[in-house]
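Example for tutorial group B:
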């Protein structure tokens, strides 16, 4: 998965945990994304589906460029969400102005 975000901006994306048959009843912890310099990740669980998260990524201090992070989650038992790589492209911030200056 690749996410594009404006420098100093914010982007939202959906994250789903896809369970194996053995993990149908397992309780997973909130997912984590390995620390990426200058990027902040915030997770919000869907109250109607414990396997669906809305993730906000903010490019607070990130420099322009491409970054990679690994998404993981652990359970209280032996189950582990297999790491998934996510790519984040920080692009120059753009401004929008109308032709009449408003």
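The residue assignment follows.
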């Amino acid at each position: 998965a690749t996410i594009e975000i404006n420098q100093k901006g914010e982007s939202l994306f959906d994250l789903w945990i896809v369970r194996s048959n053995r993990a149908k009843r397992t309780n997973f912890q909130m997912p984590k994304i390995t620390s990426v310099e200058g990027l902040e990740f915030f997770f919000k669980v869907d109250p109607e589906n414990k396997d669906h998260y809305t993730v906000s990524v903010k490019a607070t201090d990130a420099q322009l460029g491409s970054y990679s992070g690994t998404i993981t989650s652990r359970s209280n038992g032996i189950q582990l969400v297999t790491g998934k790589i996510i790519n984040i492209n920080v692009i120059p911030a753009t401004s929008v102005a109308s032709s009449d200056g408003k």
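Residues 39 and 59 are 5 Å apart (CA to CA). Compare this with the pattern of hydrophobic and polar residues in the output above.
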